[in-house]
Amino acid sequence: xxxxxTDEGGAIVxxxxxxxxxxxxxxxxxxxxxxxxREPVVVVDMSGVAVIDSSGVATFLEAYQGARKKEGTFxxxxxxxxxxxxxxxxxxxxxxxxxxxxxxxLHARD
Length: 110
Prior knowledge:
single chain; 110 residues; Transcription Regulator spoIIAA; 40% helix; 26% strand
């Protein structure tokens, strides 16, 4: 798993590439929680993520909850079909704010 972080003037965009699973979930967790603590809007570009497991889902859920506690916005953008299927199975597709693109995610509000 690799990632690229960009500052979009009051928002952070994190673009992940690769699988988000138990092997990297601790690193992803630390990164997301840091971003949520620094900016009110965090958009996660999921276009490069092919697979996510339960530890990855739990990591995103924790970051989402952290953003909500700070009255921030946490958006998953460009979610692929395989990852979306996992979110639907966990019944989290209605919990997370999902955007078709990063640009759309930057304009989303919870």
